[in-house]
Amino acid sequence: MDDQLWFYADSNKQQQGPLAFGEIQRLAASGVIQPSTLIWKEGMAGWTSASEVQGVFSNPVPQTADTPVQIPEIAGNPYEAPSSANLMGVSKGGIYPIPNVKKCSFSLFLGLFILGSVLSIVGFSLIIVEVSELSGSYENETAQPQQLNPDDDTRGEIPSSEEIASSINTAIIPGSAILFIGLIIITIAMILSYIFIYRAWYILQPGGARTSPGKAVGFMFIPLFNIYWMFVSFHGWAQDWNRIRNSHSNLTSIPTVSEGLFLAGPICIAVSIVPLIGVLASLVYMVIFFVMLFNICKVVNAIADASQQEN
User: Fold this and answer.
1) Which of 13, 35, 52 is the last residue of a domain?
2) Nearest to 37, CA basis, from 4, 19, 211
3) With contact defined as beta carbons under 8 Å apart, do 235 and 266 qualify?
4) Which residues pair with 15 in a beta bridge?
5) For residues 41 and 6, is the Cβ–Cβ distance under 8 A?
6) What is the CB neighbour count within 10 angstroms for residue 220?
7) Are 118 and 266 contained in the same domain?
8) pLDDT, tens digit (0-9, with 9 covering 90-100), for 134-183
9) Are residues 167 and 27 in the same domain?
């Protein structure tokens, strides 16, 4: 039972869901779902009052045998059992079933990204400087006339290519280590950003999101296809969030996001494959990406606060 998705009819006679059974129980405990509220899951012949489904309420609800369940008439929705075509249908009006979600620390992401970038630049610079100095010193040695000194057998010897390579490898070790640490920190920051995107899609699931959190993140790693999928993951998320936010009274205190901004980011990614202007488009995308992620974190954190208040 817990693994199946459930739907319920809100006070405005609108279909809400899909939800896990645990969310149905939580809504019943908070009073959003009443004993007379109609609920449904796949496999049931039709909508049934919540009081008749075992486990919805912690305490048994007395039933009146002489009072039949009245199924309300709904414009455009005769309360048929949801089909596969509308399992993720638009949720409108009423109270949004806010899911429990962890907060996103944008400052942590930004701090890690900046630290990793600085270390990477420092490490790369050290490598360039050391290689340049060694190359210059060897060029000077080979360019000067060799001096004969019977008391010094090593004076004037030209180092072999193996010795030069060994000296360069030894010199660049500190810079390489710093560069490696910087790249690792940047990687951690980017993994954190994908976690934030996952949570952003997770909070949209009760409202009929166009895709799942796993697909929203996972499909961005598919070569070439990910160029298209960026439009879904970012612009699609902005559209879904604004729709859900404007359709539920308990979300009006949470700000909307700029759909134009979330469209500009993927456009920059698509343009980045074009020669010449691709570099500029990539730099612009980095700036837009930070702003998009900041807005995502702001929405997720507001949902997390609202969820804590409900509990």
Assistant:
1) 52
2) 19
3) yes
4) 9
5) yes
6) 17
7) yes
8) 766 655 555 555 554 555 555 455 556 666 566 666 767 888 999 999 99
9) no
